[in-house]
Design goal:
This protein is mainly alpha-helical. The radius of gyration is 44 Å and the shape is elongated. It starts with a helix and ends with a helix.
């Protein structure tokens, strides 16, 4: 029994191997495509294929060599960031100081016991509006007039509103204001904007250009218009302000607007 069992098992194994060989041969034939045998690829998990970035189109700069225009737009350089931070700090320091213009009351009205008198900033703001709405005048730079109007009293943020009643000589008043202006321009950080503020202020003080003469007239016009409004609203007699400006307007525009204000005052 033992020998026959062994012999029978051997014959069965031989038959099985032959069948397996035939199956393998048939599989190889089916896997053959146009005479080229497929090669079994290694597992993806065991193979790392390096990624190669395609080159950018020819009309774009390489990422490793950004163009000057892209550097300027993004502003990512350390020097650019430092400049922006410094500029922002100087601007806010300057504007914080200018806040005093909003809280400094015009001294002429305070001394006449006007209720809720206008601030220096109020005065300059309406002068700026005057320059904005004034008719076109050949050869006159409207933008310069607007800028000059909002700069002409800027030193009063430090020195205050010095009036003739204070007894300060004109030269001393000018010296104080010039010193204050220099401090404010330094606070702004110098540069083109600070220079522009300084030049506009100086041009107004020197009264040499047509723009300066117009803005000087606006300064007086705003004062007498405000005086008229206080007279009407608070029943005050502020005639001295009209008398102090009579005959002192330098431009035809100033004379026309002053005459209109005087005419309205007479009718009331």
């Amino acid at each position: 029994m033992k020998d026959s069992g062994a012999s029978g098992g051997k014959e069965s194994n031989v038959g099985t191997w032959e069948q397996q060989n035939r199956v393998r041969a048939q599989k190889r034939e089916r896997m053959n495509i146009r005479g080229t045998s497929l090669v079994r690829l290694p597992s993806i998990a065991s193979t790392v294929i390096p990624f190669k970035r395609p080159p950018p189109p020819s009309f774009l700069p390489m990422a490793s060599e950004p163009s000057s225009s892209s550097r300027n737009i993004t502003g990512n350089s350390e020097s650019s960031g430092n400049t922006c931070n410094s500029s922002a700090s100087s601007a806010i320091d300057f504007l914080t100081l200018c806040h005093r213009l909003k809280t400094t009351k015009r001294a002429g009205w305070v001394k006449r016991d006007v209720e809720n008198p206008e601030s220096v900033a109020d005065h300059m703001y309406r002068m700026g509006l005057m320059a904005l709405i004034a008719p076109e005048i050949p050869g006159v730079d409207r933008n310069k007039c607007i800028k000059m109007a909002i700069v002409h009293d800027i030193a009063e943020a430090i020195v205050g509103d010095i009036t003739p009643d204070d007894g300060v000589p004109k030269l001393e008043k000018s010296r104080r204001e010039q010193e204050a202006l220099n401090h404010m321009c330094d606070l702004l950080g110098g540069g083109s904007r600070a220079n522009e503020v300084s030049q506009l202020w100086m041009e107004y003080e020197e009264n040499g250009s047509t723009e300066a003469k117009i803005v000087k007239d606006f300064d007086k016009i705003e004062m007498i218009l405000q005086a008229l409004e206080y007279e009407n609203g608070q029943e005050k007699d502020l005639d001295e302000f009209f008398q102090s400006t009579a005959g002192k307007f330098q431009t035809e525009l100033g004379k026309a607007w002053a005459a209109e204000i005087a005419s309205r005052r007479k009718r009331q």
